[in-house]
Amino acid sequence: CPLTIPGGTRQSPINIQWRDSVYDPFLKPLKISYDPTTCLHIWNNGYSFLVEFDDSTDKSIIVGGPLENQYRLKQFHFHWGAINDWGSEHTVDSKFYPAELHLVHWNAVDYPSFEDAVMEGNGLAVIGVFLKLGARHEGLQTLVDALPAVRHKDTVIEFDEFDPSCLIPSCPDYWTYAGSLTTPPLTESVTWIIKKKPIEVDEDQLEAFRTLLFTSDGEEERRMVDNFRPLQPLMNRTVRSSFQ
Ligand SMILES: NS(=O)(=O)c1ccc(NC(=S)OCCc2ccsc2)cc1
Ligand SMILES: [Zn+2]
C-alpha cells in the first residue's frame, strides 16, 4: 500500500490520547514571528491548496517549543473532509475535527535548503491547528475569497501581505511528537507541534474548501475532499504536552 513506507517507525498522523501524553516541564513556549511581506502566492497542487512564502531569509520563523533552533516558514495548507464529521489528519481521543491547518517550517540553521532538510530527522517542524465549526473566521476569509481563482490543480494566484499567525490560537498549549510528512515523500523528518485549542470557522468557509478540485481544467471534475492520510501506528513514541 503506497500510503505506508516500508520500515517506517515514526509515521504521521496519529491519534493523540490525551491521558497518555506526558507533561514535559522543560518544553518552552513556542515563539512565532512571521513577516506578512514574505507571503508569495496560493496554489492548488492537486493535494491541497498551499500558501507559499519566500524562505530565502529568516524573516518568518518559529523558535522555542521543542525545537533546538529556529525554523523558517515555507508554506501552509489544510486537510479537510467531505462532511464535518471528519477531515483532520490527527485525532484527539479518537475524535476527528472537520479540518486541520499545517504550517510547514524547515531547519535553515543546519541545512542549505528545504529539499535537504526534508531528508533529515530534525529537518522540519510543522504546527498543526484544528479547525472546528463555529463562528466565521475573519482572517481565514481573505484566503477563502481567493479560492475560486485556484479551483483547478496547478493553478496559482499572487497573494501578498497575509500574516498566518492570525490562524494560530493564542492559547500556548500544545502536544509534540516525532513524526513524518503525511503526503509523499512521507519522510520521517517532522517535529510535530499540535495546538491543543482549535480555531473556529463557519460552514460556508468549510464549504469553500470543498469547491476546490483535485483535477486540472479540462479533466473530469473530482472535488478536493477527504485529503487526509489514515492514522498511523504510534509504535515506540511518546506524545509530550506543554501543559498539565
Ligand atoms: N501534510 S504535511 O504537513 O505533513 C506536508 C508538508 C510538506 C510536504 N511537502 C512539501 S512542502 O514538499 C515540497 C516539494 C518537495 C521538495 C523536496 S521533497 C518535496 C508534504 C506534506
Ligand atoms: Zn499537511
Percent of residues in helices: under 10%
Shape: globular
> Using DSSP, what is the number of strands?
15
The number of helical runs is: 3
Gyration radius, in Å: 17 Å
Termini distance?
38 Å
Small ligands present: the ligand NS(=O)(=O)c1ccc(NC(=S)OCCc2ccsc2)cc1, zinc ion
Strand content: 25-35%
Low-confidence regions: none
Overall pLDDT, averaged? 97
Instruction: Give the biggest beta sheet.
Output: 13 strands, mixed
How do the helices and strands follow one another from N- to C-terminus? Answer: EEEEEEEEEHEHEEEEHE
What is the compact description of this entry?
The chain is mainly β and 244 residues long. The chain has three helices and 15 strands.
Descriptive terms for the model:
244 residues, mainly beta, two-stranded parallel ribbon, 3 helices, 15 strands, binds the ligand NS(=O)(=O)c1ccc(NC(=S)OCCc2ccsc2)cc1, binds zinc ion
Describe the structure.
- Strands 2, 3, 4, 5, 6, 7, 9, 10, 11, 12, 13, 14 and 15 form a 13-stranded mixed sheet that branches. A two-stranded parallel sheet has the order 1-8.
- 40% of the residues are buried.
- The model has no long low-confidence stretch (mean pLDDT 97).
- The protein has helices at 114-117, 138-144, 203-209, and strands at 15-16, 22-23, 30-33, 39-44, 49-53, 61-64, 71-80, 91-92, 99-106, 124-133, 156-158, 174-179, 190-195, 199-201, 240-241.
- The chain has 244 residues and is mainly beta.
- A hairpin with a 4-residue loop joins strand 4 (39-44) and strand 5 (49-53).
- The protein is built from three helices and 15 strands.
- Bound molecules: ligand SUA and zinc ion.
- Zinc ion binds at residues 77, 79, 102, 182.
